[in-house]
Amino acid sequence: MQSKIINMAERLKDEQDRALEALFRMQPVADDGFSKRVTTTLRRRIWARRITLPLAVFVGSAIAAKPAVALMGRASELLSSVPVMESSLPAGWVPSPFILLAGGMLLAIGLFGLNMLEE
Amino acid sequence: MSSEDRELVAQVVASNDTSAFGELIRRHQSQVRNFLRRLTGDLSLADDLAQDCFLHAFNKLSTYSGRGSFPGWLLKVAYTTFLQSKRRSKRYAEILEAAGHMADSQGKSYTAPSEELSDLDKLLAVLEEQERAVMIMSYGCGLSHREISEATDMPVGTIKSLIHRSKEKIRSDFAIKDHQHG
């Protein structure tokens, strides 16, 4: 009810209102390829956004691959020097430290990739 | 909001459909460009801002609740884009000034063409930026006070007083000019 009264009040226009409306009246602007230009820019931006992160991950992985392998080898050596309670565990139950590290890294990359795909 | 607008918005939000958004642009580009042209007085700047406005609108479309009118929401994005651009150019002018250069467009947001000023150009030049925006939204775009309030994030009472003040300014300024000429 109150909003109806407000709308009614807004509609009560005086002579100046009508003159202003006539003065401000806008001629329609022709599209002239504007919408096409905007959608093209939009598609380009979406494509760039989609490609940027995977590309960065790929380049980063390529750069980090060699040091990561070296690090895994070194970690594997260190882990193998730690005494394990072999007698209490069944044979073959514990995989080699190298496989454990590689599995962990694969899991992390996989989760990261899945998260990216969901986005 | 028209049902077609509503369907197109839903389509864009659901699947980032750029073709549906293209249709929304085609439907509303005229009003947005006209609004920015009147606000800036510069055709090419207005079109650049209109493009930025639609790109922002695409990213923010999910925040549109659908309660107000879609053109009103678009004009809000357009006005925000205009204010951001003005802030950026002001900062740029300050940097230039600090570096010892004179900025060409220092603090000017409305650059009405110097030759053959239309009645509307003269009228808009009298108003402050905020008043100009509110008057264009009201008389040029036909938005209600409530819609303008939502578009500018100002209370309805403030909108009403801005419109009243603008009308007073126009009345007094043009009366003074008529007196001087007469």
Tell me what you see in this structure.
The complex is a heterodimer of chains A (119) and B (182). With 119 residues, chain A is mainly α. Chain A is built from four helices and no strands. The model of chain A has no long low-confidence stretch (mean pLDDT 78). Chain B has two domains: 1-111, RNA polymerase sigma factor, region 2, helix turn helix motif (Rna Polymerase Sigma Factor, Chain: A, Orthogonal Bundle); 115-182, Orthogonal Bundle (Arc Repressor Mutant, subunit A), CATH 1.10.10. The longest helix of chain B is centred in the middle third of the chain and has 29 residues, at 70-98. Classes of the chains: A mainly alpha (119), B mainly alpha (182). The A-B interface holds A 3, 6-7, 10, 16-17, 20-21, 23-29, 31, 34-39, 41-43, 45-46 and B 16, 18-19, 21-22, 25-26, 29-31, 33-34, 37-38, 47, 50-51, 54-55, 58, 119-120, 123, 135-136, 139-141, 144-146, 156, 167, 170-171.
Topology, pairings included?
The complex is a heterodimer of chains A (119) and B (182).
Chain A (H helix, E strand, L loop, with lengths): L1 H10 L3 H10 L9 H47 L16 H22 L1
Helix pairs in contact in A: 3-4
Chain B lengths: L2 H13 L2 H23 L2 H18 L9 H29 L20 H8 L2 H12 L4 H8 L3 H26 L1
Helix pairs in contact in B: 1-2, 2-3, 2-4, 3-4, 4-7, 6-8, 7-8
Provide a quick synopsis of the model.
Chain A is mostly helical and 119 residues long. Chain A has helices spanning 2-11, 15-24, 34-80, 97-118. Chain B folds into 2 domains: 1-111, Orthogonal Bundle (Rna Polymerase Sigma Factor, Chain: A); 115-182, Winged helix-like DNA-binding domain superfamily/Winged helix DNA-binding domain (Arc Repressor Mutant, subunit A, Orthogonal Bundle).
Overall pLDDT confidence of chain A: 78
What share of residues are in beta strands of chain A?
A: under 5%
- In DSSP terms (H or I, runs of 4 or more residues), the helix count of chain B works out at 8
Tally of DSSP β-strands of chain A: 0
Principal-axis shape of chain A: rod-shaped
What name does CATH use for the topology of the largest domain in chain B? Answer: Rna Polymerase Sigma Factor, Chain: A
Uncertain runs of chain A with pLDDT below 50, 5 residues or more? none
Number of helices of chain A: 4
Strand percentage of chain B, roughly?
A: under 5%
Secondary-structure element pattern of chain A, one letter each: HHHH
- How many extended strands of chain B? 0
Please tell me the total number of domains of chain B.
2
What do we call the CATH homologous superfamily of the largest domain in chain B? RNA polymerase sigma factor, region 2, helix turn helix motif
Percent of residues in helices of chain A: over 70%
CA radius of gyration of chain B is 18 Å
Distance between the termini of chain A: 45 Å
Report the span from N to C terminus of chain B.
48 Å
Q: Which residues of chain B sit in consecutive blocks of at least 5 with pLDDT less than 50?
A: 178-182
Percent helix range of chain B: over 70%
What structural class do the secondary elements of chain A suggest?
A: mainly alpha
